[in-house]
Design brief:
alpha+beta, five-stranded antiparallel sheet, 6 helices, globular, binds biotinyl-5-AMP
């Protein structure tokens, strides 16, 4: 994260009500998720963000690794949704990330169900939603967003063939400050829209690259193949099996079948 990103620079002109109004900013962290979790447990206000210049132990879903060197954005946002809005956070985060990339760079993005943002088929941003439940309520949720802004993915063998970055796609450096400010504004706008029961899934559905295609979905030990028909208002994927039956998939990984 370039030095242009500081609590003062982010706050200047941000104009949000709560998202990003309290900023915990670090040059290096193992993971912003862990610090956000601790802050939430200690009562940090809704909208508090944790941002790091690089992560040494960045986390993906299911224990996977998220590579976050200097030039990437590592951000976690503390939210207090009620349980019914929990499934909507992935839509809030992925639409906010897509909108901010498109607004700042003019690049076109796609969403790969459920949580990847792609540019020309390569992953530029990943999202991790973590929540802590208390009784029948949600104590807090952490929205983690990792984005490759100014870095060269070919320097990292594990992701060299599957990842891209904004600077690679644009052919020039991109302002992390503009991305962060736009992202925070969009997260707040879409989160409030979700809480006001405005449907987000229609736009999300239109941006999904897998719909109408034959895919393989995998979660745990279960594998299903079929036609990706649609997503429901909670963001679950509706897969039509070859025998005509419909299966609803809440979480997992999908790959396109030829
Ligand atoms: C994700 O997991 O895509 C969620 C990534 C969330 C990262 C943010 S950064 C801020 C916050 N703090 C954290 O520690 N995490 C969050 P998943 O869908 O499981 O994808 C992980 C896979 O993406 C890896 O197995 C790699 O194949 C690939 N990958 C890892 N680093 C990448 C990168 N920088 N760019 C593109 N792909 C990457």
């Amino acid at each position: 994260m370039e030095s242009e990103l500081s609590p003062a620079s982010i706050l200047k002109g941000l104009g949000t009500k709560f998202v990003g109004q309290n900023i915990l900013c670090y040059p290096t962290l193992p993971s912003t998720m862990y610090v956000a979790e601790q802050a939430a447990k200690e009562g940090a206000a809704e909208g508090t963000i944790v941002i790091a210049g690089e992560q040494t132990g960045g986390r993906g879903r299911l224990g996977r690794k998220w590579i976050s060197p200097p030039g990437s954005l590592s951000l976690s946002i503390i939210l207090h949704p009620t349980p019914i809005y929990l499934p909507h956070l992935i839509m809030v985060a992925s639409l906010a990330a897509s909108h901010s990339i498109e607004a700042v760079t003019g690049l076109k993005t796609q969403i790969k169900w459920p949580n990847d943002i792609l540019i020309r088929g390569k992953k530029v941003c990943g999202i991790l939603i973590q929540s802590e439940l208390r009784g029948r309520g949600v104590d807090f949720a952490i929205m983690g967003i990792g984005m490759n802004i100014n870095l060269d993915p070919s320097a990292f063998p594990e992701i060299a063939s599957t990842a891209t970055s904004l600077s690679k796609e644009r052919g020039e450096e991109v302002s992390p400050l503009k991305i962060v400010q736009c992202l925070l504004k969009e997260v707040e706008r879409l989160y409030l829209a979700a809480k006001a029961a405005e449907p987000l899934h229609e736009e999300w559905r239109q941006r999904l690259e897998i719909l109408g295609k034959v895919i393989r979905a995998k979660w745990g030990d279960v594998v299903e193949e079929g036609y990706a028909e649609s997503v429901d208002p909670d963001g679950s994927l509706l897969l039509r099996r070859p025998d005509g039956s419909l299966v609803r998939i809440v979480a997992g990984d999908v790959t396109l079948r030829s």
